[in-house]
Amino acid sequence: MSPKRLVVLDPDGTAGDTWTHVVVEAPTGVVYGNQCGGTANRFGQAEGFLVPVNGLDALDVLRPLFEKELRGAGAWGHEWTDTQLDRLRDAVGTISYWACDAEGEDPTTPRLDESRLREADEAWLPVITADGPGILVWCNSD
Fold it and tell me: Quick check: 47 pLDDT over 80?
């Protein structure tokens, strides 16, 4: 078997700050990496396939939460309040995720994977999609 390939999302920071993707976790041999955690400068990695999504409305919620309220210093292992969880759920719920197979495609809505909240951080948010578990990624603020 060939070694896994690492694809770093926006490695030089020139892709702008409005992109959002979901890395759907699957044994593909391709690992996607993304800087996350604000100024904590973590580097998350997930094996799977990349699905671009329109997350502009989600970013309008996620950025103030992670960058302002949580001070942009990372949230890994954070104990989420009920209000914060509601905001995370609402943000993820604004995303249209197109589930595609050989028969066609359908817009679906991912949901926050609350069983994996310990992994949640700025630019790295566990979700569940119609295609399985994944990670919502976006441009880290640092």
Answer: yes
